[in-house]
């Protein structure tokens, strides 16, 4: 399903036929944890190739596969609180949580991997953290998103922020529980067999 023509120009929704087929397989309730993990990896890889081919000169394992040399990988752990749907940070291993004042220490670009962008809250929180840390450009790579979540994340940081979002697919609606509709269920639960927790 494609987003309407009203999405900002910094949102890129893939139309790659192989990706569309894999996204359809991922939506299947019959996909087990191993298949789900493989499909998420393959979709992320296709989206990452599209992003790299389009604008990146210079990673999660899918991106590290594409790069000729290892790059630093930092982790931000965020989850969405189920009642309020607000993001909660539980882990941050950015060095010093802010680079030193030396301009050479500021990273030029950060690649943010967020498998699902439903309400956009966790993406927005991660983008804010990276921009406050000193990153000049944030490229978000996602498997699936809602249109509203995409627009919310794309507007983060205001007119001066350089935020580009690359996504495998886009659905129109989000349920009252913050799940994409029709979506594919809770991918984290499917990946880590935490269904019904």
Task: Provide the fold topology.
Layout: E1 11-13, H1 17-27, H2 33-55, H3 60-64, E2 76-80, E3 87-92, E4 109-113, E5 116-117, H4 121-133, E6 137-146, H5 147-154, E7 162-171, E8 173-174, E9 180-181, H6 187-192
Parallel strand pairs: 1-7, 4-6, 5-6, 6-7
Antiparallel strand pairs: 2-3, 8-9
Helix pairs in contact: 1-2, 4-5
Structural commentary:
With 197 residues, the chain is an alpha/beta fold. 34% of the residues lie in helices and 23% in strands. The strands form three sheets. Strands 1, 4, 5, 6 and 7 form a five-stranded parallel β-sheet that branches. It has a two-stranded antiparallel sheet with strand order 2-3. The chain has a two-stranded antiparallel ribbon with strand order 8-9. β6 (137-146), α5 (147-154) and β7 form a beta-alpha-beta unit. α4 packs parallel to α5.
Q: How many distinct beta strands? A: 9
Distance between the termini: 30 Å
* Tally of helical segments: 6
Portion in strands: 15-25%
Q: What's the oligomerization state? A: single chain
Which percent bin holds the helix content? Answer: 25-40%
Mean pLDDT: 83
Topology pattern, helix = H, strand = E: EHHHEEEEHEHEEEH
Rg is 16 Å
Structural class: alpha/beta
Characterize the largest beta sheet: strand count, sense, and whether it forms a barrel: 5 strands, parallel
């Amino acid at each position: 399903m494609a987003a309407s023509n009203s999405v900002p120009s910094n949102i890129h929704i893939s139309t790659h036929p192989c990706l569309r087929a894999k996204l359809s397989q991922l939506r299947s309730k019959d996909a087990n944890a191993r298949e789900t993990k493989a499909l998420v990896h393959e979709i992320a890889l296709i989206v990452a190739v599209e992003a790299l081919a389009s604008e990146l000169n210079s990673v999660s394992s899918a991106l590290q596969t594409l790069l000729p040399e290892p790059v630093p990988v930092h982790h931000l752990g965020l989850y969405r609180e189920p009642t309020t749907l607000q993001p909660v940070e539980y882990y941050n291993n950015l060095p010093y949580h802010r680079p030193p004042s030396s301009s050479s220490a500021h990273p030029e670009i950060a690649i943010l991997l967020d498998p699902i962008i439903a309400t956009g809250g966790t993406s927005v929180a991660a983008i804010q953290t990276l921009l406050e840390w000193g990153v000049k450009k944030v490229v978000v790579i996602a498997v699936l998103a809602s249109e509203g979540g995409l627009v919310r994340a794309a507007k983060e940081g205001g007119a001066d922020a350089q935020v580009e979002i690359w996504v495998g697919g886009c659905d129109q609606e989000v349920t009252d529980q913050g799940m994409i509709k029709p979506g594919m269920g809770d991918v984290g639960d499917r990946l880590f067999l935490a269904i019904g927790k």
